[in-house]
Amino acid sequence: MLVTKNMAPGESVYGEKRISVENQGPANEDGTPGVTKVEYRVWNPFRSKLAAGVLGGLDEIFIKPGAKVLYLGAASGTSVSHVADIVGPTGTVFAVEFSHRSGRDLINMATHRTNVIPIIEDARHPLRYRMLVSMVDVIFADVAQPDQARIVGLNAHLFLKVGGGIVVSIKANCIDSTAAPEAVFAREVQKLRDERIKPLEQLTLEPFERDHCIVVGRYVRSAQ
């Protein structure tokens, strides 16, 4: 089971299960044992490509407390909310979503997680939101578009620190439904290399998703 520490205790985002854990704290003034409660949210890998990758065994996703994350393809904010839990109050998640319908849910979720900045805009045109996004430590992308590698590259060149991490969810059918998934994945990895992204790890997402893989890479100064 995968969980994240809930930034908004008592609140669920998509009906996910919540688990409260009591921890021993400092003694109370009357000498009785002090108890603090921490709430965790179950992260469903069937509803999150990132969770599926973590449970599948990814060694590194670069998302950690205090990190600044650019999340492309935020949808209604299901996975974004867990990323917000991970980076915590000292981190920031810039969540980009093109659909206004999904964007309404994303904005609503962000009212309870002030470290999320929802951006309802097209990730193909990062200059449109350049005034809203600072330099980031990591980009996560799940945009399911044929030109996904180009979209990731455009955003990386503008916002990602050199040496920063990139995590890309690739859906084979969205890129080329006529080719074998393995061939599609190999072509996309080469496209990422062309965008100065050095692949470090590749993982298929079965049994959680069919014909999907996640590629983890690092942004470098020159193509490698």
From TrEMBL:
<dbReference type="GO" id="GO:0003723">
    <property type="term" value="F:RNA binding"/>
</dbReference>
<keyword id="KW-0808">Transferase</keyword>
<keyword id="KW-0687">Ribonucleoprotein</keyword>
<keyword id="KW-0489">Methyltransferase</keyword>
<dbReference type="GO" id="GO:0008649">
    <property type="term" value="F:rRNA methyltransferase activity"/>
</dbReference>
<protein>
    <recommendedName>
        <fullName>rRNA 2'-O-methyltransferase fibrillarin</fullName>
    </recommendedName>
</protein>
<dbReference type="GO" id="GO:0032040">
    <property type="term" value="C:small-subunit processome"/>
</dbReference>
<dbReference type="InterPro" id="IPR000692">
    <property type="entry name" value="Fibrillarin"/>
</dbReference>
<dbReference type="InterPro" id="IPR029063">
    <property type="entry name" value="SAM-dependent_MTases_sf"/>
</dbReference>
<dbReference type="Pfam" id="PF01269">
    <property type="entry name" value="Fibrillarin"/>
</dbReference>
<keyword id="KW-0698">rRNA processing</keyword>
<dbReference type="GO" id="GO:0000494">
    <property type="term" value="P:box C/D sno(s)RNA 3'-end processing"/>
</dbReference>
<dbReference type="GO" id="GO:0031428">
    <property type="term" value="C:box C/D methylation guide snoRNP complex"/>
</dbReference>
<keyword id="KW-0949">S-adenosyl-L-methionine</keyword>
<comment type="similarity">
    <text>Belongs to the methyltransferase superfamily. Fibrillarin family.</text>
</comment>
<keyword id="KW-0539">Nucleus</keyword>
<dbReference type="GO" id="GO:1990259">
    <property type="term" value="F:histone H2AQ104 methyltransferase activity"/>
</dbReference>
<keyword id="KW-0694">RNA-binding</keyword>
